[in-house]
Give the backbone structure.
Amino acid sequence: MYNGLSLDQAPPISAVMRFFLTVPLFGILLSLTVFFHPEAVLTPAHPLSLAVIHMMVLGVITMAMLGALFQMQSVLGGRPIPAASGNALIIHVFLTVGILSLSGAFAFGGAAMFIVAAVFLGSSILYTANLILPLLFGGVTHDTLRGMQLALISLSVTAIFGIVMASSYANSTFSTMHDAIRTSHYSLGLIGWIGTLIIAVAFQVIEMFYVTIPYSLWCKRNVFRVIAASLFLKVVWLFFAFPFVWIFDLTLGALFTGFIITTLKRLQLRKRRVSDVSIWFWYTGIALLYIAIMAYGAYEWGHYKPLLDISLIAFILFALSIILGMIGKIVPFLVWFHLNSNGIMDAPIMSNIIPQSRAKTLFSLFLLTSFSLLGGIFLLELFVVGAIAAAAMFALLFFNLINALKVYRFSLTHGLRFEQI
Amino acid sequence: MILLDTRELDHPVPLEMAVNAFKKLSGDEIVHMIHRREPIPLFEIIVKNGGRYLSVMEREDLWHIYFTRSSAVILEHNHV
């Protein structure tokens, strides 16, 4: 029995929105890079390809996920983040400067920019982990919070490997361990950080948003242990150059396939089949994850290079699909919640804050982006179409976010307050 | 006692219904919300607007939440 949760659990709306508002800006920047240099972006290890990949995984995906972490921490009943506004500002500024420096360093060269990127990105990520991780340990019983622990630890180790690699690029000297470090860096970043956090979020939101049967307790308890063990052993295997490292990829592939099946089953069996754009994003994201796993498996088998491109692009689109769906749910909630907790009695309902028509258009643009970028691996012109669609999609996302904030500010100023009734 | 059973409703309908019910409360009225999870954000809205609440877990997927705007009325859970 509980009575009297502490006040001010939730961070201020600005703490979360500053991250979300930056997402489409990086999205537009990377879309323009793809539009003007499609061939370079599709060339492995090309500087522009590395710039675009880091703008995507840091500027879009990590930026959105850190914003969501600030919000989820309070909603899940964990201990609130201290001085959320100030800490969000510090993390956001350092992260943004770090991403711009890193992308600039890849695109234009320059040792100094790699060092600046390493300092800013490393400090923002390690500061975030140092801030949030202690709140997740000690009495944590929620499985989503356990997943967040693993995700943040993975992100921290990814950043440490990234700092080492940035110093290598800055000095143009690469150690014999460079390949092991690079593979560990992207394995931990893609699976340990992005994949883990999405599974952790799914455990919470699939049941809550769509009234499904819960995930099994065994699944919730053990999935993060399997991911942690597989990634740890994979890194050890890579550094000691042991054979059969693919066993850990196979384990992770099987685990993510299990996640796809169990999630699809829950969405299919949900009690009320209310149409919601966010659920379309979940279905599409799951389909893209399946494509990513199958393509990676086929690449490991046959070493046909386009399969690796398909796998990476599909995995990134999977994460983007879930992020777009979740931003469409979180932002209206934030506006509604902060208006109501400020005593605004005529706050708009959540479904009116981002109208369904605009949410559907965003989804259509995402579908067009996904098909075009995946097809673009075989036909370069389609990759350019994908860049245009992506730019339009991110522009619409920015418009939706700005309008939601306008609704918030207008209601906060002109709304009918509780004491006036 | 106003009963609000939101167990079968998709998010965010339960939250919106609960806040609407809270806005309409008068005197010693109490809302008894039955929900499948603890609606933590609701509590902040209630307390910041001068209300009080009691949250009781019957099972992991069955919660009873009582809330009122009255400072005098006693909130207690009677097994239903």
Remarks:
- The radius of gyration of chain A is 21 Å.
- The CA atoms of residues 130 and 173 of chain A lie 31 Å apart.
- Confidence is low (pLDDT under 50) at residues 1-7 of chain A.
- Chain A touches chain B at residues 1-3, 5, 7-10, 74-77, 207-211, 214, 271-272, 274, 276, 329, 332-333, 336-337, 340-343, 345, 349-350, 418, 421 (CB under 8 Å).
